[in-house]
Amino acid sequence: MKLYRYLTGKDDVNFCARVTKALNEGYELYGSPTMAFNGTDVIVGQAIIKKVEDESEVPQGLKNAVAALD
Q1: What would the pLDDT profile of 10-60 be if each residue is shown by its tens digit?
Q2: For the chain, what is the radius of gyration of the CA atoms?
């Protein structure tokens, strides 16, 4: 199973730390980053994916959401 996440936040060191943490947890960058300006701050986003063999790594909320699609 592949996990998908889309991280968003203000373009600062905290956002970079979140992406770095995800990469160190086995996620890979997916696609190009996005940027927008909300009138005050630059807001960035980055999609990340991770392939998991053991479904126990899948958060229960995500399992429930995927099951609801069936």
Answers
A1: 999 999 999 999 999 999 999 999 999 999 999 999 999 999 998 888 889
A2: 14
pLDDT the model gives residue 50? 96
pLDDT of 17: 98
Give 49: exposed, middle or buried? Use CB within 10 Å, 0-12, 13-18, 19+: middle
Extract the tokens encoding 40.
């005050």
Residue 10 · residue 43 · CB < 8 Å? yes
Q: How far apart, in whole angstroms, are the C-alpha atoms of residue 38 and residue 16? A: 19
What DSSP string runs through the chain?
Answer: -EEEEEEEEESSHHHHHHHHHHHHTT-EEEEEEEEEE-SSSEEEEEEEEEE-SSGGGS-HHHHHHHHHH-
